[in-house]
Amino acid sequence: MINCDVIIVGAGPYGLSVAHHLRTVKGLDVRVFGEPMSFWEQNMPVGMFLRSNWTATQIADLEGRLTLEAFQKATGRRFSLPVPLDDFVQYGLWYQRQAVPDVDRRSVVRVEADSSGFLVHLADGQVWGAQRVVIAAGIASFARRPPEFDHLPPELATHSSVHRDFSRFAGKKVLVVGGGQSALESGALLHEAGADVEVVTRASKINWLQGFLSKALHHRMGKFVRSLLYAPTDVGPAGISQLLARPDLVRRLPRTLQDKLRRRATRPAGARWLVTRLKDVPMCLRCTVDSVSVVGEQVQIQLSNGALRLVDHVLLGTGYKIDVSKYSFLAPGLLGAIRRSNGFPILKEGLETSVPRLHILGAPAAWSFGPLMQFVSGSRYASGALFRSVTGRDPDPLQTT
Ligand SMILES: Cc1cc2nc3c(=O)[nH]c(=O)nc-3n(C[C@H](O)[C@H](O)[C@H](O)COP(=O)(O)OP(=O)(O)OC[C@H]3O[C@@H](n4cnc5c(N)ncnc54)[C@H](O)[C@@H]3O)c2cc1C
After folding, report:
1. Class of 2-142+321-391 per CATH?
2. What CA–CA distance (Å, rounded) separates 115 from 351?
C-alpha cells in the first residue's frame, strides 16, 4: 500500500483547482486520480457552448497565471463568448498540464475508512492510504432518467449526457424531453444535424437567460450598476447573484430561503443565443409524458395534451438529481456515516462531511454552500475553503510554506 496525505478523486475543474492550491503547501503529498476533464470531453455534445460568462469560466488559480487569457496567449487559440466546449476542454487540459501534470488517470473504485484515515482502491487493484480524501467526482453519476422510460433500450431512449455527436440522428424523428439548457441546446444541435426534432416540456414558457428585453436594459444600466447587481461568478439573477457569490453568507440563511435561492438560480433556462437556432424547432409547452410504449422499432408517446407522437428516439434532457449514494465508489460503511439531506451531503466549513477529513466538492456541496458550487466559478471558493481547512490559513500566492 502507498501512503500520502491527501487524495483527490476527480480531475475536473474542482479537483484540479483544489490540487493546484494544496500543492503550494510544502511537504503535503497530494495525489489526484481521474481522467482530466472527462465529463466535459465525453458527456457533452460537440458544438456546445458554455453558458457561463468569461470570468465565470475560469478555473480558480492562485497567481492568475492559469486564466483563459493566459491559455490563449500560450497556445495561440482564439475564441470569445460564448466559450465553445472544445476550447474550454483544451483550456482545462492545459490548466492540468501546468498545475497538476502528474494526475493519475486511474479510476477510484472504492473509498473506505480505516484506522489511520482512508483506503482508496484503484481499478487495477492498487490500494492507497490517505489521511484526507477530497471527492470532486462531478455529476455524471446523477443523470436523471424519468422512470416512464426505464423499460426502453438505449436505441430508443437516452439521457442527453451519453451523446457526443448527434449526426447519427440525421433523418430521424427525435423527441427531446426537458426545458433547460441541455434539452434546448440538444434540440438545436439535433435540428442542425438534420433530425426532425420536437421539444416537450412541462413548463408553461421557456425561461431565456438575459432575454432581449433584459439585455437591452443591461446595456443601458452601464458597467458600474451591472457590477453592483451581478457578481463575476455569474450565478443567479440581479442582486441575488451577489449574495450567491458569498457561500459563507448563504449557509447562514434559513434553510427554506437557501432552498428557494438554489431553485431560483438553477431553474431550467436556455441561453439567449439559442433563440434563433430553435426558431424552426416545434415546442410543446405544458406537456408531460403520460405513457410510453414500443411500437416496432419506434417509441409511441402519449402526451398530457392528448396528442400522440411516434418517434425514432427520445432524448432525455432531464438534468441531474444529486444523490451521493450513487457514487458507487463510496463503501457502504463510509456512505452510511455521511450525514445527508435528500441525497446531498450536509457539509461544514471546509466542505467537510460528518466524517472527519472527508470532503465533497462541486454540485453535491450546493445544499450546504448554495448553487455557486454547481458551476466552474465556485472552484475559487471551494479551493480556498479546502486550503483553510487543511492549513488553518488563507491561501497566499506569494507565500508557500
Ligand atoms: C450540458 C452541461 C453544460 C454545462 N455548462 C456549464 C457552464 O457553461 N458553466 C459552468 O460553470 N458549469 C456548467 N455545467 C456544470 C458543470 O458540470 C460543472 O460546472 C463542472 O463540471 C464542475 O466541475 P467538477 O470538477 O465538480 O466536475 P466534473 O467536471 O464532472 O469532473 C469530475 C471528474 O471526476 C472524475 N471522476 C468521477 N468519478 C471518478 C472515479 N471514481 N475515479 C476517478 N475519477 C473520477 C471524472 O472523470 C471527472 O473528470 C454544465 C453541465 C452540463 C451537464
Report:
1. alpha beta
2. 22
